[in-house]
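Example record

One chain of 95 residues, shown exactly as stored in the release files.
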Amino acid sequence: MVINYKNVDGFMTQKPKAVDLSSSATRVYLRKNIISVPNVDADGNELTTTHWNYDEANLTPEEYEEYMAELENPSTQLIMQTLSDLQLQIDELAL
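Predicted structure tokens for this chain:
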């Protein structure tokens, strides 16, 4: 299953959850790369308030169940571990 993320600005007061199962009865929201961003006025001046910017995918509950089942697959877990190990090696080389 391919998860398609889009970049979103969220103006909620608290940091959004990475996996949101409760804000909608018909959708599950997956979020990553969540960062706090200063708000700016019409002239581009930075304000004291902030909002959230993140990548978000929205799935049906059935799609989410399918996605979770794929993540639990041993082959998928091996691939994810290998990717994680490679990223650690790249990070060490960058130092």
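Notes: The first helix runs from residue 61 to 72.
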